[in-house]
Amino acid sequence: MLWLQTNKTGSGTMNLGGSLTRQMEKDETVSDSSPHIANIGRLVEDMENKIRSTLNEIYFGKTKDIVNGLRSIDAIPDNQKYKQLQRELSQVLTQRQIYIQPDN
């Protein structure tokens, strides 16, 4: 589950969220050096990394498309409001990306 909400004077309220589910099956050997719980742990970590990567691609790519497609009904004398909105959104998304990075 991923959720982003902002409420800025210049851009108004923005809610962006989504969820992603994945399933995987894999046969592994069980031994003293590779017990069942270790195999499960590796599968969970691998799937978590794949989901994180997919979310990053979908979420940030789609958000970029949306921001690039924004247009104003009111005439903007210059692009300062648009550029400020892009900077704010980029900053929030960068902070969010740092937050979802795996601990190494």
Automatic annotation (TrEMBL):
Subcellular location: Cytoplasm, Cytoskeleton
Presence of the UniProt keyword Transmembrane helix in the record: no
Function recorded in the entry: F-actin-capping proteins bind in a Ca(2+)-independent manner to the fast growing ends of actin filaments (barbed end) thereby blocking the exchange of subunits at these ends. Unlike other capping proteins (such as gelsolin and severin), these proteins do not sever actin filaments.
UniProt GO cellular component terms: F-actin capping protein complex
InterPro entries tied to this protein: CapZ_alpha/beta (IPR037282), CapZ_alpha/beta_2 (IPR042276), CAPZB (IPR001698)
Region (Disordered): 1-34
Domain of life: Eukaryota
A GO molecular function held by the record: actin filament binding
The entry's keywords: Actin capping, Actin-binding, Cytoplasm, Cytoskeleton
Similarity comment: Belongs to the F-actin-capping protein beta subunit family.
An annotated GO BP: regulation of lamellipodium assembly
Subunit structure: Heterodimer of an alpha and a beta subunit.
Comp. bias (Polar residues): 1-22
Protein name: F-actin-capping protein subunit beta
UniProt cross-references to Pfam families, sorted A to Z: F_actin_cap_B
